[in-house]
Structures are given as structure tokens and as C-alpha cells.
Amino acid sequence: MDATFSPQRSNTDEESTLSRAKHVEKHKGYGYLMRDCIIGFADGITVPFALTAGLSSLGQSKLVVLGGLAELFAGSISMGLGAWLAAVTEKQHYELEEAREWREVREKPTEEEEEIFDLFAEYGVDRQAARSVVTALKANEDQWVRFMMDFELKLEKPAIKTACVEGLVMGVSYFIGGLFPLVPYFAFPHNTLHGLFTSIAVTGMVLLLFGFTKARLIGTSWKAAFAGAIQMLIVGSVAAAVAYGIVRAVDSNRNL
Amino acid sequence: MDATFSPQRSNTDEESTLSRAKHVEKHKGYGYLMRDCIIGFADGITVPFALTAGLSSLGQSKLVVLGGLAELFAGSISMGLGAWLAAVTEKQHYELEEAREWREVREKPTEEEEEIFDLFAEYGVDRQAARSVVTALKANEDQWVRFMMDFELKLEKPAIKTACVEGLVMGVSYFIGGLFPLVPYFAFPHNTLHGLFTSIAVTGMVLLLFGFTKARLIGTSWKAAFAGAIQMLIVGSVAAAVAYGIVRAVDSNRNL
User: Fold this and answer.
1) Helices (H), chain B
2) Looking at beta carbons, which residues of chain B come within 8 Å of A243?
């Protein structure tokens, strides 16, 4: 559900310089947390919206609320724990690779040197032209290892030390996102249809607001942000319509 | 939910060489599709498992089946469409950046040249040492642009031309993954508890099989694959237990 995160660019110079700076930085530092927050919120609002809309076809608000709550907790816990484990794995993976790179630089410097030449050869830079850069990199093992991590393995250093913060941010964002489509069914305990229509209206407005807030935060153009919000609205609507149809069809054809 | 995808390494030389080769290639070409498949399946099996377990506390298989089906369709559609839109956005983003880089190389070659010097300076390579590489890159605009895309912007060329294939793979994987925990409730229409226990057993076995198959496909060590499968089992169990508890608590305290 990262569909609408990548900043799109306008062609005005000032804006494009700003967004490029933000772009280059976007995978570093606390950008991670904002990304987790956006992904969690976007998923959290879409799936519970579609699920509750589907269950609303049964005409019982109680079932919608219980199903919605179960999804909200199941989804936010599995997303949050999943993000936490992913961050831990990524960090371990980076550290393993870094340790290996250090070993190789120390134990097989000639082979590592060849790898730099190979890297440059891919861009049409021959051995003779690359020689002075290789010599400069070899002068400082620390820089050399960093160069290999960035350009040979193309691994970014995980910036956040506390993987559990990432998990928490994503889980909580999912939970908050999922509350919006669910709350209207609490408000209309005896009229599922009112709940459904209010849920559609609330979810639609939150998605639009979300798209625009995101635009302010990451420097996307307003037009792109609006397009992103509309896209999410379409995804949510299609999912909700299909879930509604399936539940209705199965409910009327099956006597369990 | 990408927690268990990153290959972890053993220290034997043969295996590490193999896994490095796979690692370097893993974000290119059809690796994307395998990744979509793994993420979709992992999410698909966890959330529907937890949701159906939660709803099973109501003691009515019909509700579990309807809730599970609604989640299955809502989740697979929003994940599939989401992945499709993400792939489209990523491709557009890459093409926009590439076009801009071409413009800059043509219109402001001196500034782009400075950017290469800046890039090398970050790794302790001074202007004099970098000069010959800069000259070699400038000799071929095509290579130069590719170098800037890879090293300055660190953007990988989206390899798959058909974004809809990515979306389809992820959506279908989610759907298939979600069928496993759901089917047992179809099998025991009059005994939710039997359904729940069978669902737990089936989901546990599928997660273990999934972990090992993944290990064979991407070259993870057996130990890491087993650890990954166990982690997913824990995530699913915690989510299921909380969903079960919440549904039970709300159901007994609330008369809608």
C-alpha cells in the first residue's frame, strides 16, 4: 500500500530542488517512521472499511462492530509485530554484511579491489581511469567498506536503533486509521445502513485529508496528492463493494 | 510483513558466495514477483487466521465464514490494487527522474560534474583522484545518466513492465494464503471449536512449510528459515489471541 508515498515532481525549479533534497533523504533517519506511519494508516483505513462494509450487508450492527474490532486488533498487531521483526532482521542483515565486507577488505584486499574495477566497468570506466579512485578508497578502510556497502551491495544503513519503535508506529497508525470507518457503526447500533453511509462519508473525507496532509509533509505536489487520495478511495470502494457482494451472496445461498 | 525475506548468511564459503550472488540480484528482474508472492502470502495467512480465530469466540461458524470471506476479498483486493498502483507510481517516478537527469546532463553538465565530485568526496576521494573517472563518465551520456541514477539518486530501474502482474501476484497470493485458515470452518459448520483447532493446526503447518519452501527458493539457511517460520507463528498467535479476547469481552459486555 505504498502506492502514494513516492513524491512526484512538478517542473518548477524551486519545488523540484526541494523535493529532490527530500527525495535523497527520504530513506534515511526519521523518514522511516513517517513512512511506517503512512503505510500503517493507509492499510488500516482501507481493509477495515471494506470488511465492515461487507459485514454490514448482514444488517446487524453488532456483527459489524465485532468483526471490525477483530480485524482492527488482528491487523494492527500483525502489521506492528511484522514491521518490528522486519526492522530487526534488516538491521542484523546489514551488520552481517558489514562484518563480512570488513573481513574481505582485510583478508582479500586484491579481490575487493577487483570488485571496484568491475563496478566502474559497468559504466564504461576502464581500469586506467578508475585506478586513482581505487587507490584513494584503499587509503582508508572505513571509507572503503562504506563505499562497498553503498555501491556494491546497495544496502542502506538502517538508521533507527529501536526497531520496536518502528513496529509500534506502524501498529498504532493502522489502529487509528481503522477506527474511522468503524466508529459510525458504534454510533448507529440499530441501523446498519446509516452506519454504512456514515462510514463511507467519514472514510472518504479522512482519505482526502490524509492525502493532503501527506502532501504537506513530504513535498508532493497538490495535484499528485489529490490523485493519490482518489486512488486510495477507488481501492477502498472496489474492495468494499466486492466484500459486500460476497457476504450477501453467501449469506443468502447458504444455511449453516 | 517482510520480516523473514532478507536472506541470512551462513559462514561457509560456498553458501555465502551463492547467497551473495542471489542477494545482489534479488531486487532485479523476476525477484520482484517472488517478493510480492511471499509478502502477499505471509499477510494473507496471518490476518485472516487471527480474524477468524477472534470471531470463532462467538460460537457460530456461519459468522466466522462470512467474516473470513469478507476479509479475504477485502484484503486481497486492497493489497493487489495497492501493489499495482505502487508499481505504476514507482515506474512513473523513475521515468520522471531519468528524464530530469538527462535534461541536467545536457543543459547543466558542469553542475552534474560537480555532483560526481561531491559524491566521491563523501568517501574521502579528492577531486584529483576522481578526475579521470569523471572524464570517462562524461564521454558517454548514456552511461553517465545511468551512473547518476544508481549512485546519486540510488533508484533501481523497475524491471517489470507490467505493473498489473505484480498486483495480481500479490492479490492472488494473499487470497491463497488466507484460504488455509478459513477452510477448516467450512469443514466443521456445526462446531466452531473443531474449526478453530483445525485452523490452528493447518495454519501452523502451512507456515512451517512456507518458511522451508522460501528457504529453498531464495537460498536462506535452514536455521534462519525455521526461525522465520516460528516468528510468523508467534505473530499470528498473538494477533489471534488478542482478537479472540477482544471479541469475547465486547460480546459479553455489550447488548446491541
Assistant:
1) 13-25, 31-56, 61-107, 109-121, 127-138, 141-147, 163-187, 192-218, 222-253
2) 69-71, 73-74, 77
